[in-house]
Amino acid sequence: MYRFLLTRQWVILTLIGLVLIPVMIELGFWQLHRHENRVARNERIGKALDAPPVPAERLTSPGREVPDSAVYRAVTAKGTYDAKHEVVVRRRTNGDDEVGFHVLTPFVLDDGKVLLVNRGWIPADGPQTAFPKIPAPPRGEVTVTGRLMRDETSAASGIKDVRGLPDRQIMLISSGQQAHALGKQVLGGYVQQTAPSADSPQLLGAPDHSGIGPHMAYAVQWWLFAAGVPAGWVVLVRRERKDRLAAAAAETAPAEPAEASPATA
């Protein structure tokens, strides 16, 4: 009664199940790896935020990418702001999802190198084609404190690096692009300022590193789906066998004799 498993319908169904099982298992491990990466990222961010500040030039240098271990690390730098070459980063939001700009100001160090400082967020007051009014940075030599960040890219941020923007407006923070525009050595990455000055733009909050996301739950779901495929196949096979046995029994059952009609007078 299991010969029906060799029919075209059941062969296709079985093959589909055999393909789905390893695919679902692999998807479960993919979600597990995403969970592990999220946990590791949260731990790395937490350690960076809790670490004492160090001079920025100890963690980054011109033309080099900021390593993972240094991202969000508190750094300091001593120098002067170059407000003349200040630019704004378009289409950035604050904590209330209001659209505005990030203020990116070159910070000239004592050795002549430049560190890009994101001084914070300002609202888009008027058309975004015009350069907004920005609180002036402090004059003279000052010390900047902030979180070290990696250069922004379209691949990582999903923001398209649009060309032909109004003067002194950019879409992404790139130390390489700013080094070309300034004609100076610019340290890789940038600093997100955390210590405010008088009348400064709205400072940006620290990254949320408390959540772990739903990846572990998704992994368990995929593995349950993988276990359900063979279980469902067995249920279907038993049901098919039961139906075929019932049909065969009905075909082999003897026909009941017809009732005799009453004799006529």
Automatic annotation (TrEMBL):
The chain crosses the membrane at residues 12-32. It holds the Pfam family SURF1. CDD domains: SURF1. InterPro entries: Surf1/Shy1, Surf1/Surf4. It is a multi-pass membrane protein. This is SURF1-like protein. Belongs to the SURF1 family. Signal peptide: none annotated. The keyword Phosphoprotein does not apply. Keywords: Cell membrane, Membrane, Transmembrane, Transmembrane helix. Residues 246-265 are annotated as: Disordered. The keyword Cytoplasm does not apply. It is found in: Cell membrane; Membrane.
